[in-house]
Amino acid sequence: MMNDFSAKTVKALAKKGVTLIGLQAIPDMTSSMPWANATRGYVMNDNDCCRVLSFNEVLNLAKS
Fold this sequence. Notes:
By secondary structure, the chain is an alpha+beta fold. It has helices at residues 7-15, 55-63, and strands spanning 18-26, 39-46, 50-53.
């Protein structure tokens, strides 16, 4: 999980009080087999609020 993001991204998130705490499958509801075509979601502790974000959402959060 930590290998999915660069050290720079992890540090940028930490400065905002955001840490990666786990992974979760996000089903593709446009498919006839949503769980078979699931994408990886990242469970984040965002200042004591749990959120599940996609890879691009995590990157955008680090940049903002």
